[in-house]
Write a structure and sequence with these properties.
Elements (H helix, E strand, L loop, with lengths): L18 E6 L2 H9 L8 E5 L9 E5 L1 H4 L9 H7 L3 H6 L10 E4 L2 H18 L2 E6 L2 E5 L9 H15 L4 E6 L2 H10 L5 E3 L5 H5 L12 H9 L5 H5 L3 H8 L1 H10 L15 E12 L2 H21 L2 E12 L3 E13 L2 H12 L7 E13 L16 H9 L18
Parallel strand pairs: 2-4, 7-8
Antiparallel strand pairs: 1-6, 1-7, 2-3, 5-6, 9-12, 10-11, 10-12
Helix pairs in contact: 5-6, 11-12, 13-14
């Protein structure tokens, strides 16, 4: 679903804000499984500061299969190895049970960012307002896209598209506000979908342990429990003044959140650094005319989105994903900030030519290094206001001491 139009049959005015919180399940592990499908359903640990074969570092993500062995996030790799030996070592050590062993991989943030960008592109197509809070989670205000009767189907469609096009699983919570939506997305992980309607918020929150409420850390949770406050209902039905005396303004906030009162709007965290669109083929293809057609469509969509946001761009790039999940990015820098839809298509197709003959499962187009309406567009002879491909090509080539601009292959740049 694209554009900002409300779905047919939905009233023009929404009586309640509808907020969705999308959280990718065990995201780093899910990304590793994209590259190594054989890891699917296997205990998998992704470690920060971890090197293959060593026992240093800390657990960044543990798959649910690894968690069943007692492996937890932030746990030292040495302790994780005590609970879940490496499969390779277990296969050669009679003292170890190979069936109770798992796989370990080091963090590859560049790769995870490239997958995250694919998810973000889908989220932005499903909501006018998206607040990205981390590499694997975001809030969406979908009030203008659906209503409370249709939001469950809307959320299922979003989940299914992320899994189909990106290959990772999202858990989604829907509620009238951000704090409740966040709790809802955690309620039935993994692969969960929980919709909390406005009239059900208090009942939904009532049994939630206090440490799961927004803004409650371990210290606050211990203090609340020492006062006999175990779950959200205890807070919601408690003495508001006593909470304020004990915790200051946070006491009032805790009281309101436990009652499902959260008026914060979903607001983006600053302006975007890039705009992109991606699309997957049903099956990998080497039909280059079909791949080119898909890139043309994506280039038009990205340029249109930049125009609607009054964004100028200094860089145009593509992403090409080949089986099983090899991510290739190429980009070209421009002389200055511009808005030139035809040039987006031209550069994207030029960069794509390198992959003629390759089997491709997904393609993407991106504009980046954005500047917004207050910046004057760059104008070069033979570039601005003309459809002359040769003139534009000369304008690009003449920059940077006559050298052809660099075609870069950096995952970290495609964010």
């Amino acid at each position: 679903m694209t554009g900002g139009a409300r779905l047919p049959g939905i009233a023009e005015e929404a009586s309640d804000r509808i907020v969705a919180h999308a959280d990718m399940d065990c995201f780093y592990a899910a990304c590793e499984r994209l590259r190594e499908p054989a890891l699917e359903d296997e205990p998998l640990v992704v470690g920060m500061g971890y090197e293959p074969g060593e026992g240093v570092g800390a657990v960044a993500t543990a798959s649910y299969e690894a968690r069943a062995h007692g492996v937890e996030s932030a746990q030292p790799i040495s302790k994780a190895l005590e609970r879940l030996p490496r499969k390779r070592e277990a296969a050669t050590d009679p003292a170890l049970d190979v069936e109770a062993a798992g796989f370990y991989r080091p963090v590859d943030m560049s790769f995870y960012e490239s997958v995250s960008e694919e998810v973000r592109a889908i989220l932005h197509e499903h909501a006018e307002t998206v607040r990205e809070v981390s590499i694997d989670e975001a809030y969406l205000d979908v009030t203008e896209r659906t209503d409370w009767e249709g939001v469950e189907a809307f959320a299922w469609a979003l989940k299914e598209r992320i899994e189909r096009e990106v290959g990772v699983t999202a858990s989604i919570g829907v509620a009238p506000n951000m704090s409740t939506a966040k709790i809802a997305s955690d309620a039935e992980k993994p692969d969960g979908l929980v919709v909390v309607r406005p009239d059900a918020v208090r009942d939904f929150l009532a049994p939630v342990p206090v440490e799961e409420l927004h803004g409650v850390g371990p210290v606050t949770a211990r203090e609340l429990r020492s006062r006999g406050i175990e779950v959200a209902a205890d807070l919601a039905n408690g003495d508001r003044r006593a909470l304020v005396e004990a915790f200051g303004e946070r006491g009032d906030e805790l009281y309101r959140r436990a009652r499902g009162e959260d008026e914060r709007p979903v607001t983006p965290k600053g302006r975007p650094k890039s705009l992109s669109r991606e699309s997957a083929f049903a099956d990998p293809t080497d039909a280059f005319d079909e791949i080119e057609t898909r890139v043309r469509t994506l280039a038009e969509a990205v340029a249109g989105r930049a125009h609607r946001k009054d964004a100028l761009y200094r860089t145009i790039g593509i992403k090409v994903v080949t089986p099983p999940f090899e991510v290739h990015t190429r980009e070209r820098s421009l002389p200055g900030p511009i808005e030139e839809p035809d040039l987006v298509e031209e550069v994207a197709l030029d960069l794509l030519a390198e992959f003629d003959g390759e089997r491709v499962r997904k393609v993407g187009v991106r504009v980046s290094n954005l500047e917004f309406a207050s910046v004057q567009q760059s104008s070069l002879d033979g570039w601005s206001g003309t459809d002359d491909r040769e003139s534009r090509s000369n304008a690009i080539t003449d920059v940077e001491s006559g050298d052809r601009l660099r075609d870069q292959a950096s995952l970290t740049d495609f964010e």
